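Translate sequence into structure tokens.
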Amino acid sequence: MSKASRHECGECGGTEAYVTRTGANGGYGPALLPGVSKWFRPAKFDVRVCAGCGPVSFHVDQEQRQRMRDSGRWTKIG
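Result follows.
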């Protein structure tokens, strides 16, 4: 992936995007990354939003993706 494409929106081509890191532990809602959290350390992911047109995407880091593969709670679909 080129450096420019990382920050360009796939919907509108805009370059004004924002990101925040948040927990995926569920709390008052569903656990978004089941089987990935460690004891007292909930899984986290980055939430990215295009300020131009509004699509939201979720991104999980390499270590947590490996825990997802190993957890047995996820089914590979491809």
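Note: Confidence is low (pLDDT under 50) at residues 1-5.
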